[in-house]
Write a structure and sequence with these properties.
- There is one protein chain.
- By secondary structure, this protein is of the alpha/beta class.
- It has one domain: Aldolase class I (TIM Barrel, Alpha-Beta Barrel), CATH 3.20.20.
- Helices cover 41% and strands 18% of the residues.
- The protein has 10 helices and 8 strands.
- The structure holds 4-methyl-5-hydroxyethylthiazole phosphate and magnesium ion.
Length: 207
């Protein structure tokens, strides 16, 4: 099954929740079809298996951040530039088979390299200020994301400080997807927050 790379890209960040499974279910219940498991203290394989069983049952895709071997138990791998340094990226692409491969790219040149290396999408940000990633850097806003969108034909996944309020800017940038951690995980009602984001994104693209 080919995953459609458009819409809200949910991130289950281990450091942002006490209950990754409940958070995943809130996302899946809202119709989010692409979810990343991010665990900077170390990817837990048991959690990968649990999340993957649930995404599969929902017809959604689970992408694992950082840990390539764990990603082989799921539907895709998301890598930062630091994860790829010194590695044969095309060989890793080949080992992923039909799984998704996403690469964080800070600029147009990196996005073009990611395309040559066989990535399926590029992650670009931070769109807005974020407390979730300490070293995220300065917000690049609509113009920063749009510059990468213009430079590549790959789907661009915008990330960083995205919420229901600034979602129109993400849509205006031409990003194919909006990746969200805290606007769902830290909401009083994560399921309602996820639904609101999905609905807002649909409204923004129905014009
Ligand atoms: N990469 C760039 S910004 C960011 C990551 C992982 C954090 C996104 O989290 P939030 O809470 O949606 O700002
Ligand atoms: Mg990484």
């Amino acid at each position: 099954m080919k995953t459609e790379l458009s819409g809200i890209y949910g991130i289950v960040d281990a450091a942002s929740t006490n209950d990754p499974v409940a958070l995943l279910d809130a996302m899946l219940g809202a119709g989010i079809a692409v979810v990343q498991y991010r665990a900077k203290a170390g990817v837990d394989r048991a959690i990968v298996r649990t999340l993957h069983a649930r995404t599969t049952a929902a017809g959604a895709s689970l992408i694992v951040n950082d840990d390539f071997e764990a990603a082989l138990e799921a539907d895709g791998w998301h890598a930062g530039q630091e994860d790829l340094a010194g590695l044969d990226v095309r060989a890793l692409r080949a080992r992923l088979g039909t799984r998704l491969f996403g690469i964080s790219c800070d600029d147009a040149a990196l996005a073009q390299r990611a395309h040559r290396d066989g990535a399926d999408y590029v992650g670009v940000g931070p769109f807005a200020a974020t407390a979730t990633k300490a070293d995220a850097g300065t917000a690049i806003g609509v113009a920063g994301v749009a510059a990468v969108v213009r430079a590549t034909t790959l789907p661009v996944v915008a990330i960083g400080g995205i919420d229901a309020e600034n979602l129109p800017g993400v849509a205006a940038s031409g990003a194919a997807m909006a990746a969200v951690v805290s606007a769902i995980a830290k909401a009083a009602d994560p399921a309602a927050a996820a639904r609101a984001l999905v609905q807002r994104w649909a409204e923004l693209h129905s014009r």
